[in-house]
Amino acid sequence: MSKTILEPDQDSPPLGGMSAEEFRRYGYEIVDWIANYFERIETLPVLAQIEPGDLKAQLPSTPPEKGESMEAILSDIDRLILPALTHWCHPSFFAYFATSTSAPGIFGELLSAAFDVKSMLWRTSPASTELEEVVLDWLRQMLGLDRGMSGFVYDTASVSSMHAIAAAREGIEMRIREEGMSGRKDLPLLRVYASEQAHSSIDKGIITLGLGQRSLRKIPCDSEFRMDARALSTAIEEDKRNGIVPFCVVATVGTTSTSSIDPVPDIVEVCEPHAMWLHVDAAYAGSAAIVPEMRHVLKGCHRADSLVLNPHKWLFTPFDLSVLYCRHLDLLRRAFSLVPEYLRTPEQENVRSGSDYGVQLGRRFRSLKLWMIVRYFGHEGLAARIREHCRLARMFASWVEQSPDWELMAPTPFALVCFRACPLIKNEAEDARAKRLDGLNEEIMHRVNSTGKALLSHTKLLDKLTLRLSIGNIRTTEKHVRQVWELLNQQLQALL
Ligand code: PLP
């Protein structure tokens, strides 16, 4: 008799998941592997020492037909994955914004993966929904933000800022949710303002929201890379005279290139008379406000409409977790809430449902890791680590200042140092010097990075190639900062 679809398939491989016994065995093995990884991380090259395509060439191009043993899989982590990693948790990772995970954060991720809740409605994830509200309120208190700011978790600052701009747009009552932006003769050009130093995520948010790049007007900065509030005011007035509708300003506390701080109190004074939404991008530097003596970096933010900060940058939280604080969650909800019949619940009017505040339906249980981190380190422990990173950066900056061969390219308000080598050659023409120093600094950076002993990144400031040393890793100590200074000087001497 032929098999029917109702009979179990006798030839099928075993069904169900891994047994509890096996899970324990491999789970302990993986935890041991991670502990060893952190113990030996300093012996590994920070930057992956492979060429593009090397890993792909070693992986089968087709999936395995039959399941493989965990032994085989885990041995490939050592053999294939590890050599292809750039080690962000290496204490000599000084590139971009240096960040790192931490043990309570890893445990939080593990538990979150085990629970695998989809935090979309209160009832699908009461723990996630309520813990998120509580832990973000703790963080608000640590940052010294006022009670009017309610927090919400997204994956990244790019996404947080995009949602903030969407809420700002919802607030101008132009029925964009209902009617869109295309094919409308009644819709003037809508304008968002940010400084020349603002992160590219603001441009991308504007592109994603269909506003178009011409909706973003970049405002010039002063000599310390901070938005010129007077130029902002002039730009808004000019746009208004031309029939453009200004609706949002993005100020940055801790810009990506230099960590400069836009003058939020002055920018607020410009925004308020025009009833414009002020969003503060504090993705990197906002965390510094948990250090009591650094609270002033968020000065003026009690008058902002929204603010983003990334615990995955400088609060030792494994990627990804970004927090948007917003004074008008009602507008965010108005922009994004859409409840089809299959998601309707009896309690929906009295609870927060994650899917009401963004484009995603299901959301990961991210607040768990932040809750575990805040409890494990405490406010004091987190602040002490950030304070130490700032001290190390000031120490490095002082070496740069004292050396005739190096110069600082920007102030150091946090834990990022912008600098470059500038050895003198007598009677050199200005143009030739500019070109030589750009080439020299690029070469120094490549040589340091290719040693595998440290990783730096760069930017351009006033058209000059500038090296960036960012300190933010939980394992970085004075020893590592001294080592990279020595490495930089060795490479400079070798090139002179
Ligand atoms: N804003 C600033 C100031 C940043 O420096 C960055 C990234 O470094 C971002 C936003 C984007 O962060 P994310 O990767 O979380 O989108």
How is this structure best described in words?
- 41% of the residues lie in helices and 12% in strands.
- With 496 residues, it is α/β, with parallel strands linked by helices.
- A hairpin with a 2-residue loop joins strand 10 and strand 11.
- The N and C termini lie far apart (86 Å).
- The model has no long low-confidence stretch (mean pLDDT 96).
- The site of pyridoxal-5'-phosphate has 15 residues, from helix 6.
Structural features:
496 residues; 11 strands; globular; binds pyridoxal-5'-phosphate
How would you summarize the topology of this molecule?
Elements: H1 20-40, H2 54-58, H3 70-81, H4 103-115, H5 126-143, E1 150-154, H6 157-170, H7 176-179, E2 190-195, H8 200-208, E3 216-219, H9 229-241, E4 245-252, H10 264-271, E5 277-281, E6 306-309, H11 311-314, E7 322-326, H12 329-336, H13 367-402, E8 406-408, E9 416-421, H14 430-451, E10 457-461, E11 464-470, H15 478-495
Parallel strand pairs: 2-3, 2-4, 4-5, 5-6
Antiparallel strand pairs: 1-7, 6-7, 8-9, 9-11, 10-11
Helix pairs in contact: 4-13, 5-13, 6-8, 6-12, 9-10, 13-15, 14-15
